[in-house]
Amino acid sequence: CGAILIHAEWALTAAHCAPYFGAGSEILLGQHSRNAAGSGADECVERLEVETIVPHEDYNGGTFDNDIALIKLSAPSEYAAIDMLDQPDDDTWHSAGTPLVVAGWGTLSSGGNTPDKAQHVTVPAVPECAETGYGNQYNPATMVCAGETGLDSCQGDSGGPLFGIDSSGKRTLVGIVSWGYGCAANNYPGVYARVQAYTDWICDLTSG
């Protein structure tokens, strides 16, 4: 599982990733290569402990509704957090085909191998996700879809970011990798926790 820094002392991940981020566990920030980080050769890696993790109180492991969690770090990170969270009623990143970026260390194909280095791919927004193969499994209030045949997040990317980049280079966090049917399958885009649905929840728990 991955996570995304949203504040010097807070990161977001998927609620179904909570078992991997228990209090006292180590979280690596700025990691690019798994092998280099494991050997200590990657000087860019910052190692911090998880102070606590707070899954959304309404997370449903059966439907993946509210699949979002906050990680409180033991100390402030030296890395810059993502620039913005997607805001309620802002449709900037939700029109069909809008390019978004998803990143992580997930497998390169369904059931495939895990890469050593972090990967990213540009995927199109799919606002009419209920019209895909997911039907009513997709909840537009808590989820957002992005991807197309051959372009998707995959196993191991859970908890990582889906974000948009504007013309000035600012990054807006739109989603958190949540679930899907296989990877990059026809008519089954990736499904993400809809960040704009949780801004109040995030602000309440992080004190703004």
Automatic annotation (TrEMBL):
<keyword id="KW-0720">Serine protease</keyword>
<protein>
    <recommendedName>
        <fullName>Peptidase S1 domain-containing protein</fullName>
    </recommendedName>
</protein>
<dbReference type="Pfam" id="PF00089">
    <property type="entry name" value="Trypsin"/>
</dbReference>
<dbReference type="InterPro" id="IPR001314">
    <property type="entry name" value="Peptidase_S1A"/>
</dbReference>
<dbReference type="InterPro" id="IPR043504">
    <property type="entry name" value="Peptidase_S1_PA_chymotrypsin"/>
</dbReference>
<dbReference type="InterPro" id="IPR009003">
    <property type="entry name" value="Peptidase_S1_PA"/>
</dbReference>
<keyword id="KW-0378">Hydrolase</keyword>
<dbReference type="GO" id="GO:0006508">
    <property type="term" value="P:proteolysis"/>
</dbReference>
<dbReference type="GO" id="GO:0004252">
    <property type="term" value="F:serine-type endopeptidase activity"/>
</dbReference>
<dbReference type="InterPro" id="IPR033116">
    <property type="entry name" value="TRYPSIN_SER"/>
</dbReference>
<feature type="domain" description="Peptidase S1">
    <location>
        <begin position="1"/>
        <end position="207"/>
    </location>
</feature>
<dbReference type="InterPro" id="IPR001254">
    <property type="entry name" value="Trypsin_dom"/>
</dbReference>
<keyword id="KW-1015">Disulfide bond</keyword>
<dbReference type="InterPro" id="IPR018114">
    <property type="entry name" value="TRYPSIN_HIS"/>
</dbReference>
<keyword id="KW-0645">Protease</keyword>
